[in-house]
Amino acid sequence: MDSTNPKLVHMITFNWFPVLFLFSTIYGTCLIIYRLYLSPLSGFPGPKLAAMTRWYEMYFDVIRGGQFMWEIDRMHEKYGPIVRINPYELHIKDPIYYNTVYTGPTMKRDKYNWFLSAGAPNSLFSTAGYNHHRLRRGMLSPYLSKPAIRTLEPVIQEKVNLLCRHMRDALRNDVPLELHRCFISLAVDIVSQYAFGKSNGFNVLQEKVLNDNWKDGVTGAFANLLLARHFHFIPSLFRGLPVWLTSLVVPATRHIEFMESSIKERFKHVYEMNRHGIKEPCIFSELMHNEKHPAAERTFNRLKDDALFLMVAGTDAPSQALAIMLYHILNNREVHEKLREELVYALPDARSDPSLAVLENIPYLTAVIKEGLRITALVTSRLPRISPDQILEYGNWKIPAGTPVSMSIYLTLRDPSVFPEPLLFSPERWMQQGSGRSQMDECFVPFSRGSQGCLGPNMAHAWCYIGLATIIRRFDLSLFETTEENVTIVRDCFNGQTKPGYNKIQVKVQRDLTSSAV
């Protein structure tokens, strides 16, 4: 006799798929109706598909490879200066409005948590809340102030002089130099010594031959941000898998692993030295002992993430800016000759180390650096900010409190209404006076602006002044197998990137001007 309960059999064999499908369809339909017609952002212009789902953005970011910034620009061409770019966020293209979104400490602005997908969750970069960010920023900012960078000037010059050795070797051996490789080596050496101490610096420039390990690691880390932004579980998943396996999915994993493990190893060494009472002057040694800051902000994991942040953010953008800046100088004979003439007048002895105070008072050098930072505009990503308790007004639009609002440094610095002929490298634009110059100064935001802007403009300016002046005063350089395509930004991976395989700027050293004391 079969004692099987027929009701139980029916429940077991019941096909749940139609029910799940129906539920998903109803839920999806309701969500679309809400986002298109009932959301507080439903009245803002923009593509309907972008308002319905983040998959629209994901397609341009991940499938098309960092193309969403250009899609945003196309949205503005069609819909106007304010557009809804996804279900939750607005983007504004109006340089004059930049200071409203990225305001100073008197107005509260939070970062947008969803957008923060870096692999250092405890870092300053990944801190969203205004008050918490202010606390963490206050820990690092004294070390990147103008007076602090002045004390770092001898270290910067020492490392630039080491780079000059590589240039002399290249002249002697008649081989080209790759500028990204040169300048990221320079940046890694400067930042690592300042962060971890002289005995713990990476000393990449001491190597006989420079390699691309750091360049590939940093480039790969930024390229991975797009994937991690849309699929937040991926960084945690990858950390639990062997490198050989993750390399099959993301080829740059080996370079990223090399970079991250090298930074963590240096930080751990500083941490252990401090535990045993051995203190070397450096940023993180001082932070570990500074009892003005809460103990929870001085733990190993907390400061380790800031070390990662400082090494990646502090080396990539400045090194790329220097490389692309030098490309534009060498590609423009009039600019090159005028800059050399001004440097020869200010620095009669090519062998002497130029003083930062002197360099900052050379007008054309300042104009070249400003124009280089403008045309490079390496942070291509939009930077969303949230006004948590205040309605923002843009024209006739009222933006609800709590709404992520973003603008783009890249689009701001290339806006023709402020910078005529924005694709032209023209330092002369910064030599003019009048209302046009005032507007350019107001919209000059290569490091963003406000209470959550980049911490490193003083450091970057020091590198640009000392690095450019030293190299151009001491060497005759010419471009080698390098064209505009090697510096044209075509992908937004938070930082701007060229077409794969084109991220190289090669030069030949034609003459060492110090040998004849020109």
Automatic annotation (TrEMBL):
Residues spanning the membrane: 16-38
Residues at which heme binds: C454
Cofactors (names): heme
InterPro entries: Cyt_P450, Cyt_P450_E_grp-I, Cyt_P450_sf, Cytochrome_P450_monoxygenase
Keywords: Heme, Iron, Membrane, Metal-binding, Monooxygenase, Oxidoreductase, Transmembrane, Transmembrane helix
Molecular-function GO terms, alphabetical: heme binding; iron ion binding; monooxygenase activity; oxidoreductase activity, acting on paired donors, with incorporation or reduction of molecular oxygen
Ribonucleoprotein listed as a keyword: no
Similarity-based family: Belongs to the cytochrome P450 family.
PANTHER family given in the database record: CYTOCHROME P450, N-ACETYLTRYPTOPHAN 6-HYDROXYLASE IVOC-RELATED
The protein's name in its UniProt record: Benzoate 4-monooxygenase cytochrome P450
